[in-house]
Amino acid sequence: QVHLVESGGGLVQPGGSLRLSCAASGGMFSFYDMGWYRQAPGKQRELVAHITTGGRTNYADSVKGRFSISRDNAKNTADLQMNSLKPEDTAVYYCHPLYTDYWGQGTQVTVSS
After folding, report:
1. What pLDDT, on a 0 to 100 scale, did the predictor assign at position 76?
2. Residues 85, 111: contact at Cβ < 8 Å?
3. Is 87 helix (H, G, I), strand (E, B) or coil?
4. By C-alpha distance, which of 34, 41, 40, 52 is closest to 95?
5. Which helix (H) or strand (E) segment is 6 a member of?
């Protein structure tokens, strides 16, 4: 059983930055590809960024050049640095070990002036 806790969300003005963090416990974190997902009201959950066990990264087109995913296997954490935030980035953000059923409670990101 993997327990995930996301943090770092909040209210930020357009153009601002936030850094989300995901702390994992109870499993072999380094064995999982990790993803950051988001879900806006009335929309499906979507994959925003993905990092493999070897550190390769992929991003949704909507966040390329603005978001950066990283991981620290020694600390069992996966972070998402979000820059140049837009109102359309408003959503609940979740971290998720790919190909598993494990999800955290999410952290709310609101981009608004």
Report:
1. 94
2. yes
3. helix
4. 34
5. strand 3-7
